[in-house]
Design a protein that fits this description.
Layout: H1 4-12, H2 15-39, H3 46-57, E1 59-62, E2 65-68, H4 69-97, H5 102-126, H6 129-151
Antiparallel strand pairs: 1-2
Helix pairs in contact: 2-4, 2-6, 4-5, 5-6
Length: 155
């Protein structure tokens, strides 16, 4: 009985709907990331404050540009937000395309699936569990979309 319910929902949901759900999950993930990253303040004491000040203070010439560790740290956080937004838009665009052409979107779904798995692994290794959970959820929905795109005619 428990297996019937997910199969019914999967049969009702087409590739387009699955990709839109995936896009909304990713949108939530990256909105939270953007908010937390842009509003973060030191909360672990004087050592953390000193570290951040040192990251901002010391500059060096790097490939013709003067940069600090803070520039790299903050810039990478902004890039993560940007690439997250690009993923959300791409997923939404694929959901529109999948309404008429399910098979051609499979290769892009596969690329995004492996990108999210890789991101999840790196996030587990170097950052935190919660963002990795969202990456795994997005990857699961991408896998469902991938297999559904093979089985379904255009919507």
């Amino acid at each position: 009985m428990n297996e019937v319910v997910p199969k019914i929902y999967l049969n009702i949901m087409g590739v387009s709907i699955l990709l839109r759900i995936t896009s909304l999950i990713a949108l939530f993930q990256y909105c939270v990331h953007a908010f937390l990253f842009l509003t973060a303040t030191p909360s672990h004491g004087e050592d953390e404050i000193n570290l951040i000040q040192a990251m901002k203070f010391y500059h060096w010439s790097f490939k013709g540009f003067t940069r600090s560790y803070w520039n790299f740290y903050f810039g990478y956080g902004l890039l993560a937000i940007l690439w997250g937004l690009i993923e959300v838009i791409l997923l939404w665009q694929l959901s529109i395309f999948a309404k008429n052409f399910t098979l051609p979107v499979r290769s892009m779904i596969a690329v995004l699936f492996f990108a999210n798995l890789g991101h999840a692994i790196l996030t587990l290794r170097y950052f935190f569990l919660i963002p990795a959970i969202f990456d795994f959820i997005v990857a699961i929905f991408l896998a469902l979309s991938f297999f559904k795109a093979n089985a379904d005619p255009p919507e």
